[in-house]
Amino acid sequence: MNYENGLVLSIILIPMVAALVLAITRRVIGKYADWVAAAATGLTLLAVLALLPVLYEGVEPRISLDWLPQAGIHFILHVDWLTFPFLLTEALVTVFAVVYSLGYHHRDERTPFFYALILFFGVGMAGTTLADSVFLFYIFWELMLIASCVLILAWGEGPNTGSVALKYFLITHLGSLLVLVGLIYLYDVAGSDSFVVLKSGLELAPSAVRMITVLFLIGFGVKMAVFPLHIWLPDAHSVAPMPVTIMLAAAMLSMGVYGILRFPLSIFSPAQMSVFAVPLMVAGLVSQIYGALMAIAEKDIKRIIAYSSVSQMGYILFGLGTMTYEGVAGATLHVIYHAVVKALLFMCVGLVIRATGKRQISELKGLLKKMPLAAACSAVGVLAISGVPMLAIFNSEWMIYSGGFHTTHPGLVIAMVLGSLLTVVYALRLFSNIFLSENTEEWELNSIPRTMNLPTVLLAVLALLAGVYPSPVFGWIEQELTLILGGLW
Amino acid sequence: MNTAFYSILLLSGSALLIYLLARLFSCRNEVLACCTALVFLLAGLVLFQSGEVRSESGLALESQALKYLVQGEQDWPGESASRLIAATAMALGFVVSIYSARYLELDRRFKTYYPLLLLTVAGLAGMVYANDLFLLYLFAEWMSVCAYVLVAFRRHTNTAIEAGFKYLIMGSVGTILFLLGAAWVYRDTGQIVMPIQSLEAGNWAAAGVVCALVGLGIKSALVPLHTWLPDAHGRAPSSISALLSGIIIQSCFFVWLRVGLGLGVSKHVLGNVLIWISLANMSVGNLMALSQTHVKRLLAYSSIAQMGYILFSFGVGLRFGVPEAIRAGFLYLVIHAALKSLAFLSKGVCHFYCQTTSIEEMRGIARRLPLAALTMALALAGLAGLPPLAGFVGKWFILTMALGTRHRLAVVGTVVFLLMSMVALGYYLPLIVQLFSIKPDNSQAAVPVMHVSMWMALPLIALGGIILAASVYPAPWISWLSPAVLWMGGG
Question: Would you call A174 an interface residue with chain B, using a CB distance cutoff of 8 Å?
Answer without folding.
Answer: yes
